[in-house]
């Protein structure tokens, strides 16, 4: 019988480094406080590469959380969900000594990287309805649009979190974002609409744009965030530079944490207490290809231009 930590925080992100790059030290401090932390990685982060690459990224995520938890032993298992007559087999790992720390790997295809054009942005196209279904790259599941929403909602129900951490999905801070970041959050927000939790907080974090914002972490928190990212980087060569060191853009991100939006939802599902970032910046003028959108590219397997509505 699976062990599910309940309450606490649930983080839903697209890729295996999105949480530790952009949501720390919040995740670290939460784990150190003994709060249950459940993280769902929506895509495999494969960048069109083989299993050796995406499975290594999963090991990187586990290494990062192991460090934040202060050690332990990972237990790998498959969680079976029965939803509307369908069965979904979800890869998952939890810490034997601290079962409240659990990771889920849904393994939908990454939206960019070394892909054929027809394979780009499958998560976005599933969300928009352009694709009727998308198979996880491990072959375990096939998701229609509603299936992915329902799986996320079911995982929420299993863990009953009172706090959700998400990536930015719209507005100026979404300009230039990776398509997977945006659409993982769109799916998460839709799943939240079906969640039965009576009261919960939602925080959406600035992602890529935080690298150009002022460093705002204490020296201690910045050092810890960098150490955590380096634990991940031992398993993902794509985040290293030509000297084998963590690429500077990742170092810059670990020195910052910014909130794009924060609010609570009460028992009737009405958002309250909206909060803006404490040090907001002008997201800038859209650069290309049309008004209201921005383009971002990142070297390595994720080298692909994403155009995101920034209005």
From TrEMBL:
Recorded GO MF terms: hydrolase activity, acting on carbon-nitrogen (but not peptide) bonds, in linear amides
Protein name according to UniProt: PIG-L family deacetylase
Annotated spans, Disordered: 267-293
Matches recorded under InterPro entries: GlcNAc_PI_deacetylase-related, LmbE-like_dom_sf
Pfam families per record: PIG-L
Domain of life: Bacteria
Transmembrane segments: none
